[in-house]
Structures are given as C-alpha cells and as structure tokens.
UniProtKB/TrEMBL annotation:
<keyword id="KW-0548">Nucleotidyltransferase</keyword>
<feature type="transmembrane region" description="Helical">
    <location>
        <begin position="100"/>
        <end position="120"/>
    </location>
</feature>
<keyword id="KW-1133">Transmembrane helix</keyword>
<feature type="transmembrane region" description="Helical">
    <location>
        <begin position="266"/>
        <end position="286"/>
    </location>
</feature>
<feature type="transmembrane region" description="Helical">
    <location>
        <begin position="132"/>
        <end position="155"/>
    </location>
</feature>
<dbReference type="InterPro" id="IPR029787">
    <property type="entry name" value="Nucleotide_cyclase"/>
</dbReference>
<protein>
    <submittedName>
        <fullName>Diguanylate cyclase domain-containing protein</fullName>
        <ecNumber>2.7.7.65</ecNumber>
    </submittedName>
</protein>
<keyword id="KW-0472">Membrane</keyword>
<dbReference type="InterPro" id="IPR000160">
    <property type="entry name" value="GGDEF_dom"/>
</dbReference>
<feature type="transmembrane region" description="Helical">
    <location>
        <begin position="194"/>
        <end position="213"/>
    </location>
</feature>
<keyword id="KW-0808">Transferase</keyword>
<dbReference type="Pfam" id="PF00990">
    <property type="entry name" value="GGDEF"/>
</dbReference>
<feature type="domain" description="GGDEF">
    <location>
        <begin position="373"/>
        <end position="505"/>
    </location>
</feature>
<feature type="transmembrane region" description="Helical">
    <location>
        <begin position="69"/>
        <end position="88"/>
    </location>
</feature>
<feature type="transmembrane region" description="Helical">
    <location>
        <begin position="292"/>
        <end position="314"/>
    </location>
</feature>
<keyword id="KW-0812">Transmembrane</keyword>
<feature type="transmembrane region" description="Helical">
    <location>
        <begin position="14"/>
        <end position="33"/>
    </location>
</feature>
Amino acid sequence: MGKVHPLLLSRRDAVPWAYAAAGTAAIVTYLVTSSPARYMLAALVSASVVPAIAVGVTRNKPSSALPWYMFAAAMAPYAAADVIWGLYQVRGDEVPFPGVADMLFLGSYLLLTAGLVTLARQQAGRLHWAGLLDAGIVTLGFAILSWAFIIGPYLRSELSAWPLAVSIAYPATDLMLLSLAARLMLTIGTPTPSFLLCVGWLVILLAADGLYYGTQATTGTAIAEDLSEVGWMLSSLLLGSAALHSSVAQPALPAKNQERLPRRRMSILIALILMGPLIVLANVGGIRGQPVNVTVIVGMMAGLSLLLVLRVAFLAQYAQGRAIALAASLREQTDLQKQLTHQATHDPLTGLANRALLHERLESVLGRCSANSSAGLVMLDLDGFKDVNDTLGHPAGDELLVDVAQRLTGRVRDQDLVARLGGDEFALLVEGVDARTLHDYTTRLLDAFTDPFILAHGYSVHVTTSIGTRSVTKPTTPTEALRDADTALYRAKTAGKNQAAFFESPHQV
C-alpha cells in the first residue's frame, strides 16, 4: 500500500469516534470485571455493528452499499451466536459443540466472505494476476501454519466426524477471509481511513481466531481465552467504525504497477515460503513422524514454489515491458533531439541549411583551404521575386522558394551545402573545386532558372537569379568570404541581373 489519507477528526467523524470510545469502554469493562455477565458485553459489541453499518451507509452514502449490507447481514448471526455463547457462560453451563452458535458463527463467516468478494471487486479494480499471485502465496503460507498448528492436530484428535468437520471449518473459513484480505491489502495503492479500519478488523479477527483455535487444537483447551475475546470485540468495533467513518464514501485507489515486487513484500513472501521447511526441520509437534502431514506440507511447499516462479515470471515480464517502454522513450527523445537540432540548423520552409549551419560549415572548410584544396562560396538572389509576392500573394511566393530550393539541390553534388539565408537569398558551399570548376557550377545554376516554375492553380512563373561567387584558395574567415561573395552579388545585380559575377576571376587564383 502507498500513501494513506490522514485520519483527521472532523464533526462528521465525531460519530465513529464516539462509537469507538463506547466500544473501548465495553472492552475495558470486560477486562476489569470477573462476573460471568461480562461475556454478554461481547454480544453487545458485535450486535452494535449492525446498526452502526446501517447508520454509516445512510449518512455517508458509499458508491455501493452492497458489501456493507452484506457485512451487516453477517454480523447479525455473529451477534446471535455471541448471545448464545454468553448465556451459557452466565449460567455456568458448558457450551455444546458443535451447536447452534457454531452454525451461526460459520454462516456469518461465509457472509463476510461474500461481502469481501464484492468489496474487492469494487476497490481493487480490474483483475491483476500479480496481485492475485501475491495473495495466493500469503494464503498458502498461512495454510501451512494452519495445517501444522490447527488442522493437523485436529485430525490426530479423537473427535468424531461431525465435531471434527466443524473444527476444521473454522480455520478453513479463516483462510478464505485471509485470501481476500491479502488481495485487498496488496492491490490498493492509496487506502482511505475506512479501508484501513477494515484491514484492522480482518487482521485482528484472524489473529484472535488463530490464537483461540491454535491453542485449543494443540493443547485441548483455549489458552488466553480472554485475549481472543478482546480481539473479537475489537475487530467488531473496527468494522462498525469503518462504516461510520465519512471516508467510506471515498473509493480506495488501486495500486499502480502492481506487477512490481518491492523488497519488503519479497521478503515477506520468501519468509512464508520458508515456513514449511522450518516447521519440518524443527519437527513441530513431532511432524516428521507423521507421513501424511509431511506429505501435505511438502505439497503446499511445492504449490508455493510454483506460485513464486509464476510471480517472478510476471516480474520479469513487467521488467521487460518497462525496458521496452524505456527504450521507446529514449528513441523518442533521440528523435526529438534530432528534430530540434534539425530545426535549429535548417530553414523551416525549404528544409535547406540556414545561416547558422552555413556559418558553421564555413568555419570548418575555409580554415583549411589551400591552392591544392580550394573551395567556393556562391550567393544567389532571385530577380523578380517581389513581383510574385505582390501579384500572386505570399503563399505563391513561399511555394516558389520551395521549388527554387529543389532545383538548386538538383544541380549540385550530395556533399555540397545549399542554404537559404533568408527571404529570396540562397548560398552554396562547394569543396574541392578550383576556380574553373566553380565557374561551371555558376553556369549550371544560371541554367537552372531557364525553365519557368509551375505553381499551384497552374500559374507559370519565370524568375532569374543573380549570382556572386568567391573562390577560396587560402585560409579565410567566414565573415570575409561572405562579404566578398556579397560584393560580387551586388556587382551582378547592378550589371543587369540574370548573370554571375566573380570576386576573383579564375586566372587570378
């Protein structure tokens, strides 16, 4: 279980506190008095649960009252059995076994089981096999204890068939309650105060039953009977308080990632699995001399081992799923990083490199240029682009820029860098070309604008370009190269457009 809602005292919760105080007073009275009449206090406390649940459901209006009504229906025969048992104690008579009280007790446990099944379906949400396996391991682990200390001794006793069946029915119904309690505790992530009170009711009820029937089975008489009686009274008190608490209307949130196996839970499960071997090794009750009991315990141990293997398999599957999810998340993060990097270094309209990436590549290339390893920088500016924007609109102008980018990239090598500097201005960085080859590049780029551009809606647009070129044959800074190419571009435009100008003529390089 995870976080817990705070148990804050409010006016609305004054009723459950008053109820708890009255019940505590009854328990204290039971402990400090020695009159046989004190046994009727147990009947009074268990009987009070029925109206407490009725009042709690009416006041708090839980989303589903069905499990609480089933608990109330279960506590009615439970209280009746307490009355019968108490009356025998008051009169000093021996309580018949098995008798009507036993039938009422067992019937109430079956109704409590039905109520817990309904509550588990509502509170725990959809079925989680990992949580069910954990609950199965807990139940089977305690079943080994129940067999060793209660059921086994009863089977070795001289009880006849009917008393023996009733004696074994008590721990059997307790195991059913334990299984449901374990499922609830292991599958709820954020318990409410009402839910915690329910857990306390079940834990104390099962502990009191275990103490009473365990000592009765092994010694023939119930040792610390008053302690068990106080436990039963306290458990009834907690159930009534759970119904009266205002948080009964709040659903307990199911635990997330129930496939996880926290270290503390793993330690508990391993301790339960080791319970059987320890009982056999310690020869509890001379069990090693009882082949039937040893066989049963070994069988339960095998079942526990199987459940643990399945649980580990679920854990491995969960870990694999988490690993796959993590890998997918890392891939997504890497893709996003690449996308962000691309957006930071590329023009969003044309997909070409932007000014930042061009400057970065210029620094890398121009710094190692020489007569034997020259490079070229070409700058282009469209002629007549403003007329396209003014007559056809900016969307048509954007479409034209995209088409220009495609034509430029189609006229150069893969290793050449084509960039859009902004507006209708483009640049080209080529490596390993001399001045003559750079002149051929420039001619090829001018030819790229010979054919008109066909835009949407069938518009045919003819634009030309002016080109300024700078050949680099020695280490040069990007700023210098861009300045020189821009100077050449200005010369080309002033010379009449649709032509190229070189900052340096080929025979000067």
